[in-house]
Structure formats: C-alpha cells, structure tokens
Amino acid sequence: MKPIVFLAMFISMLLIQPVFSQNKSLLNLKWEQNYTPTYDEVIEMYQLLDKNYKNATLLEKGKTDTGKPLHLFVINNKEEFDPVKIKSSGKSILLINNGIHPGEPAGIDASLWFADDILRNKDGLSKILDNTVIIIIPVYSIGGHLNRSAYNRSGQTTPYETGFRGNAKNLDLNRDFTKCDSENAKSFSKIFMEWDPDMFLDTHTTNGSDHQYSITLIPPEPDLFPPIMENFIREKFIPEIYSKMEQGEYDLIPYVSFMFRDPKLGINMTQEGPRYSSGFASMFHSYGMMTESHIYKPYPDRVKSCYQFIVSLAEFTSENSKKIIESRKKGIQESINMDVCPIAYELDTSKYQMIEFKGYETDNEQVSPLNGLKRFGYDRSKPYAEKIKYFDTWDPSEMAQVPEYYILPQGYTDVIERLELAGVKYDRLEKDTIIKVTVDYIDEFSTSQQPGNGHYFHNKVSTHSNVQDIQYYKDDLVIPVRQEKIRYLIEMLEPKARDSFFRWNFFDNILDQREYFSPYGFEENAIKYLEEHPEFKKEFEGKRKSDSDFANNHRAQMSYIYNNSEWFEKTWKRYPVGKIF
Length: 581
Prior knowledge:
The protein is α/β, with parallel strands linked by helices and 581 residues long. It has helices at residues 3-15, 39-52, 83-88, 106-119, 142-146, 183-195, 227-246, 277-283, 299-319, 321-336, 413-421, 486-493, 519-532, 534-546, 548-551, 554-563; strands spanning 56-63, 69-75, 92-97, 132-137, 199-206, 215-218, 253-254, 257-258, 267-268, 287-294, 340-347, 353-367, 374-391, 394-401, 405-408, 427-428, 433-447, 458-472, 477-480, 578-580. It has 16 helices and 20 strands.
C-alpha cells in the first residue's frame, strides 16, 4: 500500500469517530479532594465532552442576569439534537438542573461525572440512551456560582469554596419560577417549553435534621397530578426508585420535612408550590423532583450519592420511557376535562405509612463545645433504625371552577410576557366589544411586612364574584383554558391560587382607589342623587333616624351615599382577569 493512500485511510478513520470511543475519563474532577470546579472549569469540561463526542453538544440557551449565557448539554445516542425530532422518535427526555443554589454544588460534580461516564459507556450506561435523551443545565445561577468564597455556606465544612445563594440580582432562583423576575428564569422557561421534559431533577443540599443518609428525595408530589399520573408516582416511580437506590452504596429516604423536632415522631412528604422548580414542573405535567444531599456528610459522599441517584433516575426513565410518555399524555387530557381544579392543599394527618428511618437520637441538653452551654443537637454516638410515620397525602383545601376562557386586558404586558414564555396559546379580540364575564373582587388580603425575593407577597386572600358587562378592546387577550397549559393558567390567573400573579404583585394597581370625594365638593351631586333615587333616599333617611352617630357625622353620610351609588368606582379591587364559563 502506498504511504499516501495509507495516510488518507488513517485520517478517514479518525474522522469517522465512534459514538462511544473513550476508555478513560476526559475530566479532571476533584470532588474527592473536597474541591468543586469554578464556573469556567465547569463549562470548559462540558466543552471538552462536546469536542470529543459527536453525540453530545453544548448549547447556549438565552442570557442570565450576569449577561453570560445559560448552557444546556444534550446527550443522545446519535447526532440529533432537535427536540421536536427527538420527541417524534418516541424518546423520553430527562432534564437535570444544577447550581440553582451554588453553595450546594454536589449535583454540578455528579452531573459532570455522569455525563462523562455515559458518553464513554462506563458500566454499559449508554444503553440508557436507547430510549432517553439526557439534557443538563451545568450551572443555573451563574452569578451566584461566580460569587465564590470559603465563607458562603456556614453550615458546611466542605467543599472548601462554593458559590453564593443569591444570583447576580440577589434573587433566590428557587423562588422565581413563576414570577420570573430573572433572566435566568426566562431562559429556563424557554428551555422547559422547547424540550418539554418528561422527567425533571433539580439537585440541592440540605442542612435540616442530622441523620444517617447522604441523600434525601422530594419526589413528584402525587396529589399535584391528575389521577393517572398520581397512580404512576405512587405505584411505580416511588417504589422502583427506592429499590434501585437500595441496590447501591447509598440508601434513599424522603426529605426530612419537619412536623416535629424529633423525626421519630413522624415526617411528611414535601409539597412544593409553583414558585419552586419541582412545583413549576408539575404545572406542565412533568415529573419534577429534588434531591437534597446531606450537608453534614463528607463532600465525596454527597457527590457519590447524587451520582447514584442520577444513574437510578436515568435508568428508570429509560426502562419506563413509553409508560412515562403515555401517562403524561393521558394526564394532560384528564386535566383538560376537569370541571374544578385544586388551588390550595393541606396535609392529611389521618393518612400515613410506616417507613424505616435511620437517625440519631435527639438531645435537648447537648453541651456546646464552643461555650459549654446547653443546646439542641443530635447524638451521633446513638444511631437508631426505627419505623416512623410518613404522612404522604395532601388533600385539596380549596377548588376553583374551571372557566372556558380568561379575558386579559392587553395592558398587562408583564403577565402576557410570562404567559408567552410558558407557551400559552391565546387569541386577540378583533374589535372593541362588551363581554359578559365573571369577575372577582378582592375582599381581604394581608401583605408580608418584609420583602420576599423582591416582592411583598399577598397572603390570606379572600374574594367574591360578580357577573358584569365589561368593555374590552381590540387586541385584548382571549385565552382558552382547556389547553395543555391548563394547570399553569389556573395556578397563575386564579387570584387565590397559592403562587398566582396576584399574590406576586402583578395586579397591585387594582388595590389603589383612583376616584375620591370631598364632603364639600360632593354635596351638590349627593343631593341630586338622592332626589333622583327616592328609594335610596328613603333608605338613607331611615339610617339617619336609627343611628344617632351617623346622623351627627357629615362625612359618614357623604361616604354612605358615595359608596352605595354609581359614583363609587366599580374597578376598585376588581381583579382584571375576566372569566367566561
């Protein structure tokens, strides 16, 4: 063979690179030395994987509050990265989000480790990709990750440096999914709607109770889902994911959500609302969950247990790909057909199961090594394994009747932007018109005294409804409710729903009264009104005769006439979203 021909064949062989070609890891991960990579190191490692594997790619998917792009790493078993084509091929999609709280970096390291292993087919992991595509957000809160310090996370000793909880706008991004104040959340919404993940994992670390587990799980909360998906979670997902974890080095336990100071007395299943990542996912019929690595365990154990969970979840998703996809399709249809929708829940303390819990005895009189004073703590010299109550049922405490349409005035551009980010379908009125709609009036509410993630959140909202003929205008929005985004629409547009746009201050303008009266200036119109409305005048005179305080209070009388006549503005506290049933 001529040398030039041999050289050409050799170059050709290099260009035709097999999908799974590396025997050794390409990455320089140092979690065993209690080191988690910087932001630049994370991206450089994903770029290295992108360069070496043609079936993986690192994409830039919108901006974040730092101005830096939000990256998405896609792993397939072939060179296809179009979500529409992937969906049409029948594959399920697993989205893993990391670094939402950069002081909790175990998932960042574990996802890099997993991406490297599955691409080089370590332990046969590549078979997962037969039925499932893995997409990974390497670091979500980039601004927080760049704000790196040894003093960011006071409850942990390792890794030695981590990022900061707030992002570049000092927002907690795990409270921003619905209000969407950050560029991060807007870019995330675009990713989520474009890829429509069947499974979603957000990786966290917790500093709650001390116990023997390195990792805990907040699963998809069954009661947030339509019946077919609820059954899938309870009967299929939860038993199998725990079984898979039992086969590895690290046991799994539900996140220790405190009902009592001592977990021996019972814990409850956590239900995350729409502001949180897993609650956000549930609105779109995606099986969303969080892992919570345990802050008191060595960092290598946190990373390894998170890695073990990612492998278990990816295997489960691949093995049950068709069932997961089908359950979501049927679940969406069940939601579209519902007449009423839960908008608030309460824990049912009459229902529970017994689970084994490996904890440490609590000690209310533990002596502080700092000052010798008594404190509450856990005695690690006294481990135990006992059956405890696990309360895992949330009952609807308030229901909303499902309308056929919402009517939204076009002036609420901040709301419209978020509806569009969520992929909501809507039409616009072709001309000015009067529509008979049901409207809610805000009766009572309380507002937090301290800002929460940049807002003064409204609590304890009560309303009443009226049917009114309201003038709407060309280009106002007509939103059909019975669409795939039905749960999102109801959660966000019903004012009493727990994370609604109203609660997050998007409609606070209606709480201001625009028109007023002065007793002197209004008197002429008040007299005229009484003369033109004799029945009301009779009612007014009767009140003056029966109430001496009222009879001697000029302003109270003017106020009575104003508030009980057409002079009083109908739009005060009238929620602007109309409903057609």
